[in-house]
Amino acid sequence: MNGKNADETPSAAGEAERFNQTRASQALALLEDYTELIDDLIREHGEARITDIAQRLGVTHPTATKAISRLKREGLAVSRPYRGVFLTEKGMQMAARARERHRTVVDLLIAVGVPPDAAEIDAEGMEHFVSDVTLAAFQEFLAGKP
């Protein structure tokens, strides 16, 4: 056959589940990036305008508008006519979790010798895909626990 035992071949169901988890993580990553940015803009300017969101994320205004609509459907944000976008309590919690995950990944990367600028860039992608188990291990490592 292909040189593998039947026991070594991943099951189709197991492989499909891993791909499904990856796609779900990618969808969640988008929501987390938007909630974190909206929270940052609100802290800086008192509100988050779609124009500012699009500019900061490097996307078009329609792309940002579509993402904000999704945030609203998910109960993470609200918008007001002639005002900006604001996070719900659920959205603020998501932003805080995303920020904490980001900080943990950055701190770990720096602890293993990655330069701070590279750690910030790399963590932006990694933070969304690290499992809670792995994140807890990172935190224990950073706290000096074996």
Description of the structure:
The protein has a two-stranded antiparallel ribbon with strand order 1-2. The protein is mainly alpha-helical. The chain has a single domain, classed as Arc Repressor Mutant, subunit A (Orthogonal Bundle), CATH 1.10.10.10. Helix 1 (12-45) packs across helix 4. It contains six helices and two strands; from the N terminus they run H-H-H-E-E-H-H-H. It has helices spanning 12-45, 50-57, 61-73, 89-111, 116-126, 132-142; strands at 77-79, 85-87. Helix content is 68%, strand content 4%. A hairpin with a 5-residue loop joins strand 1 and strand 2 (85-87). The longest helix has 34 residues, at 12-45. The protein starts with 11 loop residues before the first helix and ends with a helix. The radius of gyration is 19 Å and the shape is globular.
Weakly predicted, low-confidence segments: none
Q: How confident overall, as mean pLDDT?
A: 88
The span between the termini is: 43 Å
Strand tally is: 2
Proportion of β residues? under 5%
Q: Describe the sheet with the most strands.
A: 2 strands, antiparallel
Envelope shape: globular
CATH architecture: Orthogonal Bundle
- What is the SS-derived class? mainly alpha
Task: Compute the CA-based radius of gyration.
Answer: 19 Å
User: Looking at CATH, which topology would you report?
Assistant: Arc Repressor Mutant, subunit A
Please identify which CATH superfamily we are dealing with: Winged helix-like DNA-binding domain superfamily/Winged helix DNA-binding domain
Percentage of residues in helical conformation: 55-70%
- Count helical runs: 6
Order of strands in the sheet with the most strands?
A: 1-2
Helices and strands, in order, run as HHHEEHHH
Work out the count of structural domains.
1
CATH class descriptor name: Mainly Alpha
